[in-house]
Design brief:
Layout (H helix, E strand, L loop, with lengths): L1 E2 L8 E4 L2 E11 L7 E8 L5 E7 L3 E4 L2 E12 L2 E6 L5 E5 L14 E7 L4 E6 L3 E9 L12 E6 L4 E5 L7 E5 L4 E6 L2
Antiparallel strand pairs: 1-6, 2-3, 2-6, 3-4, 4-5, 7-8, 7-10, 8-9, 10-11, 12-13, 12-15, 13-14, 15-16
Length: 188
């Protein structure tokens, strides 16, 4: 059990028969009336973000979650297979549990969030940036660089990303998994 004084970003709590992680919180002490805490909670199971207000001092159950290092092995049909980096134990996960599965590359290291009490996988989180290879891109036209013009490029995972005109097939690029945007070209 924890109270609203223990709230911090990333804390996982049990609320409304679901597991939520605290995305944002703010303690408010109005001039008149009791204090309260405004929160933004993200459901671990559905990904939906809700706003909720807790009266100050409210007790909540804290869920025990662990972050474990895994490596992505392969996908068959609809199941993704991962291997623990220390124990070499293998698990399989469905696609809806994975954050941005379109950026998974075989051999990629990920963090698997596991509910410690039930040993159930809550989510699979990719690193903030991934390195991908461009497999198809229209050639850039010389002289078209007066503005920040972008073109579509297909990467080795099959996903399409908007990239600058100077990116060609075979180039390796750094992509942000949070907003699916091009960051920079990676030198070999």
């Amino acid at each position: 059990m924890a109270s609203t004084a223990d709230f911090r970003n990333g804390l996982v709590i049990e609320f409304n028969n679901d597991l939520f992680t605290i995305v944002q919180f703010q303690h408010v002490k109005p001039g008149k009336g009791p204090a309260f805490v405004r929160t933004k909670l993200k459901s671990i199971t559905t990904g939906k973000v809700i706003d909720n207000t807790f009266p100050s001092g409210t007790k909540v159950n804290v869920a025990r979650v662990e972050r474990r290092p895994y490596q992505y092995l392969y996908k068959d049909e609809v199941i993704y297979h991962f291997m623990h980096l220390e124990t070499f134990e293998q698990i399989h996960v469905e696609e809806h549990v994975i954050d941005y599965p379109e950026f998974l590359v075989e051999g990629e290291n990920v963090e698997v969030v596991v509910h410690a009490d039930t040993e159930s996988v809550l989510s699979v989180e990719l690193p903030q940036f991934v390195i991908l290879e461009v497999t198809y891109s229209e050639p850039g036209v010389r002289g078209d660089t007066a503005t920040n013009a972008l073109k579509a490029a297909t990467v080795n995972t099959g996903s399409t990303i908007m990239v600058p005109l100077f990116i060609n097939e075979g180039d390796k690029i750094k992509v942000s998994t949070a907003d699916k945007t091009y960051i920079e070209r990676v030198k070999n």
